[in-house]
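Whiteboard transcription, Tuesday session. T.W. wrote the structure tokens on the left side:
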């Protein structure tokens, strides 16, 4: 039961915190305006915290987690743009450096893995901030949303 709640909380927290990143492809300009994405994520998070009747202390703690994860995600996206430029430069070359391209792939995988672990830790931090009843409500919403029983 605890694992299910932790998983549900992780999924919900990750979704709420990262929704702005996922919207990039579907809505022109959002991927280029991190502050607008931050605003949208904040609105969604505040709506969810309203639904959960979160206390001011919970809101402050969870908002700090959201800001930290968002800033890390923003940096990851900025780093990705630099890598993409390097890949294009390599592929425009008459003799692309295969070793360098593979190293770039490995570095990006490592960066994404590290970020995923930090998001998981952030979700666990949010989990500890919520009451058992709030966690149960999130878990129930998650199950309903995903069609799980």
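and on the right, the sequence the group agreed on:
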């Amino acid at each position: 039961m605890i694992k299910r709640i932790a998983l549900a909380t992780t999924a919900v927290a990750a979704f709420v915190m990262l929704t702005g990143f996922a919207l990039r492809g579907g809505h022109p300009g959002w991927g280029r305006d991190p502050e607008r994405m931050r605003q949208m994520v904040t609105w969604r998070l505040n709506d969810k915290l309203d639904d959960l009747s979160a206390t001011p202390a919970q809101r402050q703690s969870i908002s700090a987690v959201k800001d930290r994860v968002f800033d890390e995600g923003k940096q990851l996206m900025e780093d990705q743009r630099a890598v993409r430029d390097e890949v294009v430069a390599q592929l425009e070359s008459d003799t692309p450096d295969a070793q360098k391209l593979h190293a770039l792939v490995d570095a990006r995988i490592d960066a994404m893995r590290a970020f995923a672990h930090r998001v998981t830790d952030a979700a666990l931090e949010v989990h500890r901030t919520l009451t058992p009843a709030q966690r149960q409500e999130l878990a129930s919403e998650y199950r309903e949303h995903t069609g799980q029983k």
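Someone added at the bottom: Residues 14-30 have pLDDT under 50 and may be disordered.
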